Amino acid sequence: MFIQTEATPNPATLKFLPGVVVMNEGTADFRDAAQAREASPLAGRLFEVPGVTGVFFGYDFVTITKDGPDWQHLKPAILGAIMEHFMSGQPAMAMPTAGSEPVEEGEFYDQADEEIVSTIKELLDTRVRPAVAQDGGDITFRGFENGTVFLHMKGACAGCPSSTATLKHGIQNLLRHFVPEVQQVEQVV
């Protein structure tokens, strides 16, 4: 098994491409070792590597966030954990939906704005999320209120030094161009 790695805009995060499907649909974001062990054999194994503080699964990648040690010290252990997991034949998730966030959960917007929200979601799904996935992250819609779009950033995007620029200059400008009702974009946790 050959696992590729890619740098992300976030220096504390590295993207690992195992060459197999990690999650058939959705994403999973783990920031807590106990929750990770319960929901995912792979995430649990990765949190055993000292210095790992976050694990994010996309369709065909795993993004790891670290705190402390250099990547040159962490990469061999992470590569080994990913390889051992996929060679064992275990699924990435203990249960198909454990750890992944339902798209509709926690969304807020006025029913009168449903058409605007639908357009915003379509733009996010077709133009923003594929680009952000290239960098090892994901962005999900959380709400729309008084001209402000609220988004949740996951994976490499969470805590990335360039995330504010991505939100304000990239996503905000795109949404304002296609949806005149959008005035600004804010990040929610």
Question: Please, could you describe this protein's structure?
Answer:
The chain has 189 residues and is an alpha+beta fold. Helices cover 37% and strands 25% of the residues. The protein is built from 5 helices and 9 strands, in the order βββααββαβαββαβ. Strands 1-2-5-4-3 form a 5-stranded antiparallel sheet, with helices on one face. Strand 6, helix 4 (114-134) and strand 7 form a beta-alpha-beta unit. Helix 2 runs antiparallel to helix 3 (71-88). The longest helix has 21 residues, at 114-134. It starts with a strand and ends with a strand.
Question: What is the residue-averaged pLDDT?
Answer: 87
Report how far the terminal alpha carbons are from each other.
Answer: 36 Å
What is the N-to-C order of secondary-structure elements (H for helix, E for strand)? EEEHHEEHEHEEHE
Strand share of the residues?
15-25%
Strand order across the largest sheet: 1-2-5-4-3
How many alpha or pi helices? 5
From the alpha carbons, calculate the radius of gyration and give it in angstroms: 17 Å
Structural class: alpha+beta
DSSP E strands, number: 9
Q: Uncertain segments of ≥5 residues (pLDDT<50)?
A: 97-104
Question: Care to give the gist of this entry?
Answer:
By secondary structure, the chain is an alpha+beta fold. Helices cover 37% and strands 25% of the residues.
